[in-house]
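Lab notebook: predicted structure, single chain.

Context: the supervisor wants predicted structures on file for every construct in the current expression panel, including those that have not yet been purified. This is the next one on the list. No modifications to the sequence; it matches the entry in the shared construct table.
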Amino acid sequence: MPAPLILAHRGASAAAPENTLVAYELAIEQGADGLEIDVHPTRDGHLVSIHDDSVDRTTDGRGRVTELTLAEIRQLDAGSGFSPDFRGVPVPTLDEVLDLTARHGLVLNIEVKDIYRHDAAYDGAAEAAAEAVLARGLAEQVVFSSFNHTSMAELKSRHPELTTGLLMMMPLHEVGAYARTTGADALHPALAALTPALITQAREANLAVNAWTIAPPFSPLPEEEQLRAMWAAGVDAVITNIPDVAVAQRAELA
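Prediction complete. Output recorded below exactly as produced.
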């Protein structure tokens, strides 16, 4: 695969409803090398691909993911809120995304949303995702990440064959040394954390740097400019809502 890799953040989420199979399939059509998805556990122990801990923002339903069964979540419309053209698009399961990953030979970044560790429902979420990946023989194609660095350290301890990354919004002091304490394989910084020191320390510690863009209005810079800064910094992968733009920019730099 060409480097740096391009991973579609929640799929091609600027053009289709985020974290749905429609967005993932569109990202593949646009030339992305892989996908970045978010997973939460349902009340009955299934993992579904959705960003928030509730279904309120992205579906026509209400309630926390952990308080709804898979059957209840599958009845929700995750597409109409983005556009009437996507009416009836469902929330996918992790299993469905793994099947897509295997079918297309994709790289998959699974962000385990277990920053909600005060909620016992998230206990074991990372392990359940790992077991699903290992059962399909997809360990070499999958990267796990979380803002819960303890969770990633625990996952790496149990499954050293898996690849783990530490999500970061802002710079961390001596990030290379810190990452080694967790056994991480990669750093996943937002642009604000993508400093020259981070790149230097990551290279010294043999860590990949997979940076992610932030869509307006949450970033003062357009995503196109964020991507150009990331290419210039020398990242190993970009995780972006606009994979089509990233593909075009990478071609210009080749």
